[in-house]
Design the sequence.
């Protein structure tokens, strides 16, 4: 890390943080950087709410008979964990925080194309989050994050409508973010910044945005119809009144599978940035990584049926969805190999963001290869709806997305706050998280293969050993997540001043001071070189 | 921007994040198309559900379709097409910078939009309510329960009442969401009219008129699909 | 000490071993790639660690040969896994003909099972070793899922639908079955035991204990009790003899097959699909008949051969 301290004090210069003060200057801001921070605060809160539920779940499962709560409460806990983590943390995580902060800077613009719509998206998110939280406070919801009817439409006695309304509303914030990114990336690139000079983070967010604007409205209407069905008892999903519950699953997964890629494409973009910077090397196979993002976005719309191999869809539908699911694995594999190849003959440093990035590649690989089990029909029959699935998507979502999210936060933190965090602590936290994560979720693969179904409040005694291991890991993981919270907050005030480019990284965002001025650049930058041109750098 | 006195005339029209009016115009136009893609997917979910069940319960859906008055539907289709015409004329007037024409056409569009909603409410939804054709049990004692002639007509068509109710649910959900879009559109048009009256548009800056025009045409097109699917599906009798 | 720490679920059905072979193959691929990536990262990270701040790595754009390699090799492996998994799934999804039949009704939060021969069980299933058993699954309320890990079979249990799975047990013993689709408060309590018995023990179990009439006989009694005969035996409504599995022309002009789902729908919602030439006079039996009774009625209708034959055994 560079030790050069260029500025003695951050306050000697006007930047986006000190340009104005007071609550109102934040709540009415249209500056994408401030909106990113509003999102950062909100989703961090949601992350710890959802994480608290996870901790309770793991504590409960130490005993086969359930150590903590009644099954009814347990069902509410895992539903709350899923709903909050999926809709209120993972989906907005990287796009709404790092994306919001970086997209205009990386394309050399003063702001997003529609700054007021950007602010609106945060308010929409908050309304959705507050509605869902109020459903939880009012007594909870017990349908799981998937809201399958007829349980959710006719049988559950909990606050389904309120929670679903929150999810419905939050969906629009995601649409607005994606919409803003697409227009910005298309229309507001700086002179000289051609498509193939864009950072891969931008490519990833572009692919993500396509899914957001085309997928999210489908889940919105699906959840709206579900709500109407529950309110008015007229059914298109409940077979008692002539509906088809499988139709809900089709509509739901038509969004919710692509939504998985809303959650993982932006992390892939972050990793492309981190790997290049800390290897001081141009990315290996730029165009393959860029196009693999797009092909993932397209294929992701065609694989939803692999969530339904045992729901009663026809054998032939199963075949088609199986082959397409294998197909979507290939662009992900291409990315992993390219990142690894980027390290070759690089100049690799072990700063904290790089540790997160290397952790991501390993864990994402494990999550990815276990996805192959779920894509192959015969194997899915056995492991479907077991802990194997839980382990698989936590390897992608926590081992992948959250690792990359933390890596990205650590990488751009000096840009966001203008200050450095203690690197030793950061590296220590990355290690604790990596160990805790594997101890938590690896045993769950084995549990799933042995046949332990998911969403079980009590379980047969033969599964106890693995469950205890998993719970032990969860406590380590929980501590691992608290450490960055502490030192990052500490660094906002006491961290050493970072300077504009502490990592000597490439990219337009590093060519402006940290923290950047309100309009990002003193004058519109002109781009004359490829992305990641590390070898042209003055040594 | 203030550094460039040559552009000072246009400063009020140009948001700070854009370099010039062309870029701003392109961005807002492109943004509206992206938004419409989202809208298509939103309605697409309902169209998919409708298609599946229509295939499954064809007889009952055809019988349900006969409960709707295609003449009123056709009238409303005509009203909406006219409103699209006035909207297009309004955009044209904005392009040319003709303020009074713009205001007139916007008001005409609003009137036609309100006429559509009025016709729907008075001649269709209120009749459905009186005939117990509204699906579900929103208000106790007012469940879906066709009576008299209508019941006889449905039985003669070998329709299954729960499936007819499902048809009515799709009818209300789809036309309801469509009407909601109309109401939002009328609100936007009102705002546009006021802005036009104040002279906030010019041949250099009329993208709000164009964008909302696109939105209005989209809402019309959704109706162009809804009308045959819901009213004409069983054949005109 | 490993008794509390099994590494593999019991292999107790004919398909379990084939399944495990594919599972091991995929595990091997997973371990190979995960290890390969981990080791490569470690190796590069150590070999190319930054030694001075002024290092200037060579510029490497990429390599088409490498890209093709790591596209085509995974693609080929995926093709193998797809073929293998699908072929296995296809074979497993076709029940053999002469199978014992058991009807399974899931309801919050228990399993009601009835053998075609008559015996009923709750959260218990007794089957003989070495004979194919076909389960027909349906639900009284929400979606459940019938899952026997030791047999590697699982299928969702959907209200209003009949799905079937089959297995042939190969090892005598007791094995868990689970509800694998979340179904409400006591979801995790919706578990039971499959008991695999020798052929002799099974026969003894069938004849001993609570011996009741066969499902078709029970259905026949319901046929009398609800006076179905007053219409279906007099020509005012379609006759049942030989109707099962045959095409039925509807008043709407469409043609459907009189399978279990059609028969069930015609009982709970008679007006949905009226047979051509008949008036919609039948009242609904929704709420009057449980899913088990509907299954018994269907078993009765299936047992009726064409007109000239007598009521036969299923």
Sequence:
């Amino acid at each position: 890390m560079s030790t050069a301290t260029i500025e003695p004090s951050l306050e000697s210069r006007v930047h986006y943080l000190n340009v104005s003060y007071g609550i109102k200057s934040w709540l009415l801001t249209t500056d994408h950087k401030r909106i990113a921070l509003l999102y950062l605060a909100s989703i961090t809160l949601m992350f710890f709410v959802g994480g608290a539920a996870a901790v309770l779940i793991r504590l409960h499962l130490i005993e086969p008979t359930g150590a903590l709560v009644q099954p009814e409460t347990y069902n509410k806990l895992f539903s709350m964990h899923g709903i909050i983590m999926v809709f209120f943390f993972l989906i907005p995580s990287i796009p709404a925080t790092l994306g919001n902060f970086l997209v205009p800077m990386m394309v050399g613009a003063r702001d997003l194309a529609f700054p007021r719509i950007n602010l609106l998206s945060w308010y929409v998110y908050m309304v959705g989050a507050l509605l869902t939280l109020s459903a939880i406070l009012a007594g909870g919801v017990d349908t799981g994050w998937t809201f399958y009817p007829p349980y959710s439409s006719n049988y559950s006695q909990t606050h389904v409508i309120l929670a679903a309304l929150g999810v419905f509303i939050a969906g629009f914030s995601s649409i607005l973010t994606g919409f803003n990114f697409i227009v910005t990336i298309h229309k507001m690139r700086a002179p000289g910044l051609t498509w193939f000079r864009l950072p891969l983070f931008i490519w990833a967010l572009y692919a993500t945005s396509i899914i957001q604007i085309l997928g999210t409205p489908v889940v919105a209407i699906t959840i709206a119809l579900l709500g109407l069905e529950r309110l008015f008892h007229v059914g298109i999903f409940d077979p008692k009144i002539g509906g088809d519950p499988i139709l809900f699953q089709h509509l739901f997964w038509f969004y919710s599978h692509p939504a998985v890629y809303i959650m993982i494409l932006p992390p892939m973009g972050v990793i492309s940035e981190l790997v290049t910077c800390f290897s001081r090397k141009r990315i290996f196979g730029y165009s393959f990584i860029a196009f693999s993002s797009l092909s993932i976005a397209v294929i992701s719309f065609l694989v939803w049926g692999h969530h339904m191999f045992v729901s009663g869809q026809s054998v032939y539908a199963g075949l088609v969805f199986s082959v397409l699911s294998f197909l979507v694995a290939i662009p992900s594999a291409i990315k992993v190999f390219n990142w690894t190849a980027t390290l070759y003959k690089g100049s690799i440093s072990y700063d904290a963001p790089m540790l997160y990035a290397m952790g991501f590649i390993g864990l994402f690989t494990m999550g990815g290869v276990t996805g192959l089990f779920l894509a192959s029909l015969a194997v899915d029959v056995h492991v479907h709806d077991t802990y194997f699935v839980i382990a698989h998507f936590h390897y992608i979502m926590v081992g992948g997305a959250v690792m990359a999210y933390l890596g990205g936060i650590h990488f751009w933190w000096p840009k966001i706050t203008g200050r450095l965090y203690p690197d030793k602590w950061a590296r220590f936290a990355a290690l604790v998280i990596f160990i805790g994560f594997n101890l938590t979720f690896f045993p769950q693969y084995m549990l799933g293969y042995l046949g332990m179904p998911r969403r079980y409040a009590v379980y047969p005694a033969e599964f106890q050993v693995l469950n205890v291991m998993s719970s032990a890991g969860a406590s380590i993981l929980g501590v691992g997540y608290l450490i960055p919270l502490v030192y990052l907050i500490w660094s906002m005030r006491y961290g050493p001043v970072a300077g504009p480019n502490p990592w000597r990284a490439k990219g337009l965002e590093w060519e402006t001071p940290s923290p950047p001025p309100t309009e990002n650049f003193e004058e519109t930058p002109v781009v004359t070189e490829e992305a990641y041109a590390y070898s042209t750098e003055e040594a | 921007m203030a550094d460039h006195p040559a552009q000072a005339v246009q400063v009020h029209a140009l948001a700070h994040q854009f370099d010039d009016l062309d870029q701003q115009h392109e961005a807002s136009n492109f943004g509206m198309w992206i938004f419409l893609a989202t809208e298509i997917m939103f309605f697409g979910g309902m169209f998919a559900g409708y298609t599946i069940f229509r295939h499954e319960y064809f007889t009952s859906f055809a019988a349900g379709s006969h409960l709707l008055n295609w003449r009123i539907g056709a009238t409303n289709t005509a009203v909406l097409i006219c409103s699209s015409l006035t909207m297009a004329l309004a955009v044209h007037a904005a392009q040319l910078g003709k303020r009074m024409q713009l205001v007139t056409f916007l008001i005409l569009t609003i009137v036609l939009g309100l006429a559509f909603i009025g016709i729907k409410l008075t001649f269709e939804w209120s009749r459905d309510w009186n005939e117990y054709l509204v699906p579900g049990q929103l208000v106790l004692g007012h469940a879906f329960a066709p009576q008299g002639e209508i019941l006889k007509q449905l039985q003669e068509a070998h329709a299954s009442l729960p499936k007819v109710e499902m048809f009515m649910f799709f009818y209300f959900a789809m036309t309801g969401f469509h009407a909601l879009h109309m109401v939002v559109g009328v609100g936007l048009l009102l705002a546009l009219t006021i802005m036009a009256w104040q002279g906030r548009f010019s041949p250099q800056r009329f993208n709000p008129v164009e964008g909302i025009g696109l939105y209005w045409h989209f809402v019309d097109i959704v109706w162009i699909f809804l009308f045959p699917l819901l009213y004409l599906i069983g054949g005109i009798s | 000490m490993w008794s509390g720490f099994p590494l593999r679920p019991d292999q107790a059905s004919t398909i379990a071993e084939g399944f495990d072979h594919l599972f091991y193959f995929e595990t091997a691929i997973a371990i190979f790639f995960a290890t390969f990536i981990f080791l490569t990262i470690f190796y590069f990270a150590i070999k190319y660690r930054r030694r001075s701040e002024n290092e200037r790595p060579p510029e490497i754009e990429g390599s088409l040969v490498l890209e093709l390699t790591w596209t085509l090799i995974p693609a080929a492996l995926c093709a193998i896994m797809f073929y293998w998994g699908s072929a296995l799934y296809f074979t497993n999804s076709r029940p053999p003909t002469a199978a014992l039949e058991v009807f399974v009704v899931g309801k919050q939060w228990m399993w009601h099972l009835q053998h075609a021969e008559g015996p009923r069980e709750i959260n218990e299933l007794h089957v003989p070793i070495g004979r194919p058993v076909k389960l027909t699954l349906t639900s009284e309320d929400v979606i459940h899922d019938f899952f026997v890990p030791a047999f590697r079979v699982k299928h969702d249990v959907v209200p209003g639908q009949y799905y079937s799975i089959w297995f042939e047990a190969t090892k005598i013993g007791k094995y868990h079955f689970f509800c694998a689709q979340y179904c409400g408060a006591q979801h995790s309590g919706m578990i039971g035991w499959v008991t695999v018995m020798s052929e002799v023990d099974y026969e003894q179990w069938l004849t001993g204990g609570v011996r009741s009439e066969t499902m078709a006989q029970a259905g026949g009694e319901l046929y009398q009790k609800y006076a179905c005969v007053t219409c279906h035996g007099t020509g005012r409504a379609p006759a049942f003899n030989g109707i099962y599995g045959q095409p039925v022309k509807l008043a709407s002009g469409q043609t459907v097959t009189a399978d279990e789902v059609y028969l069930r729908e015609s009982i709970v919602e008679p007006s949905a699909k009226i047979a051509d030439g008949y008036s919609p006079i039948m009242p609904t039996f929704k709420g009057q008949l449980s899913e088990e009774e509907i299954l018994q009625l269907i078993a009765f209708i299936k047992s009726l051969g064409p007109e000239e034959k007598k009521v036969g055994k299923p």
Summary: Residues 6 and 20 of chain B are 12 Å apart (CA to CA). The interface with chain A takes residues 15-19, 23, 26-27, 30-31, 34-35, 37-39, 41-46, 48-49, 52-53, 56-57, 135-138, 144, 160, 162-163, 165-166, 169-170, 173, 177 of chain B (CB under 8 Å).
